[in-house]
Write a structure and sequence with these properties.
The protein is of the alpha/beta class. It contains 10 helices and 19 strands. Helix 2 crosses helix 3 and helix 5 (265-278) runs parallel beside helix 6 (293-302). It is globular, with a radius of gyration of 22 Å.
């Protein structure tokens, strides 16, 4: 019981049909430590979230009669008595998970694909699902119901007709139609944030890279990486109309279908200067591992407005274990952040959060990876304070700190009331 709420464990049969367990309460995992959730760690399941199984992995639940968490290997007789699988939820954008699904990962037979696995339960009193999550961003532009492919296809065809031979536009058409990238779709809808992938190379070998998996230790990448460096003309031909015409216009380097754009800093600097020579409207953002402080200075001088730095932890040993940098150090990343701030860039951390590891600090992004693989690869142990508790503590100590999920336009870098704006309503 959680202050008047009974949150039951949720399980699935071998066909993927989902049930609430009649006798077991919901538990989650902080790292690989199983425990019951606190009420502050749960919210009603956000609209647009998706349930899915953790294949062939036994779920866990709290047995009130025994006073402890137990592993379930068969459904109760009332639900057919067959084999059982754990259930997870993939949260809609704007929400950060607080607990992982509770399961016996030691019995898992395959490496899980790159999804952000989140604990889920069933509230008896309200007859609806609850998720282990908190809201970290109010922006609703990225909700799935804003992306109707029936409207998209003719827009893609029209833009390709208007700009024949632009290799980058052809890449983004594939991203929009085949990979269902929301940012790529925005380009063709001529609104909000649009992507500018630029780099086929990377100087890190991130364990959960979504565009290139060189070793068999993880799983297949979810998309193919761009194979060329766009020209300045290809970049500006796409970016300038978007900056000039789109609502809440942002163009962003550093996307899921590329390596790291900092390796193409010279091309990007030239492109940004060309963009700004034609329009002062909109926001130019740079997403990167920030491995080269000197390149950050050049990019700031060229005219980018903001920089988002991806990292899984501010503890160097955890950072190195996940990102596996090739020719830079964690100190280079910290140096780049300092230089970005000194240059006046709005600077964000794209923090790849994992309950039990990332209890430090701001764009809170759920890290898509097999929980057991990540935990073992980092050599982690014990448990953290809890994600919701961490967010509250840090905000109390540093009121000017902002939490979010999405990139922002220049006029919204510091929205009214941000210093006291926590927690956000679900």
């Amino acid at each position: 019981m959680l202050q008047g709420k009974t949150i039951l464990a949720v399980v699935a049969d071998q066909d993927g049909q989902v049930f609430e367990h009649p006798d077991l309460l919901m538990v989650g995992m902080n790292g690989l430590h199983c425990r019951q959730p606190h009420l502050t760690e749960l919210i009603p399941l956000p609209e647009g979230s998706r349930l899915f199984t953790v294949p062939d992995t036994p779920p866990m639940g709290f047995d009130p009669s025994q006073g402890k968490a137990v592993t379930l290997r068969k459904l109760p007789r009332s639900l057919g008595g067959g084999r059982v699988q754990a259930v997870s939820v993939f949260l809609t954008p704007g929400f950060m998970r607080t607990l992982l699904p509770a399961a016996d990962y030691g019995e898992k037979k395959v490496q899980l694909p790159l999804w952000a696995y989140t604990a889920v339960g069933w509230c008896v009193e309200e007859e609806r699902f609850y998720a282990a999550a908190v809201r970290v961003d109010r922006n609703t532009q990225w909700q799935p119901d804003n992306f109707d492919d029936r409207q998209l296809d003719p827009l893609v065809r029209q833009m390709l007709k208007e700009q024949p031979g632009n290799r980058l536009l052809e890449q983004l058409a594939r991203c929009a139609l085949d990979y269902h990238c929301f940012a790529a779709k925005n380009l063709f809808f001529r609104r909000w944030e649009a992507p500018l992938p630029t780099s086929p190379q990377c100087n890190a070998r991130c364990l959960g890279c979504i565009s290139l998996q060189e070793a068999p230790e993880c799983c297949p990448s979810s998309q193919e990486r761009i194979t060329f460096v766009p020209t300045v003309e290809e970049l500006t031909e796409i970016a300038v109309p978007h900056l000039e015409q789109a609502e809440n216009a942002i163009v962003a380097f550093g996307q899921g279908c590329e390596g790291d754009p900092i390796l193409q800093a010279d091309t990007i600097c030239a492109a940004v200067k060309a963009m700004r020579a034609r329009t002062a409207r909109g926001t130019i953002n740079f997403n990167s591992n920030a491995s080269d402080p000197a390149a950050v200075e050049r990019l700031a001088a060229a005219g980018i407005d903001s920089m988002r730095v991806s990292m899984n932890s501010v503890q160097e040993r955890f950072y190195n274990a996940y990102h596996r940098p090739c020719d830079y150090t964690f100190g280079d990343v910290v140096g780049s952040i300092h230089r970005a701030k000194q240059a006046g860039l709005f600077t964000m951390l794209n923090y790849l959060v994992f309950p039990g590891i990332t209890d430090d600090l701001i764009q809170m992004r759920n890290l898509c990876i097999d929980p057991e693989l990540y935990w073992s690869s980092l050599g982690a142990s014990g448990q953290g304070m809890g994600m919701a508790e961490m967010l509250a503590r840090v905000k109390t100590r540093i009121p000017r700190l902002q939490y979010g999920y999405f990139n922002r336009t220049r006029d919204n870098f510091y929205p009214p009331g941000f210093e006291g704006d926590w927690p956000l309503a679900p």
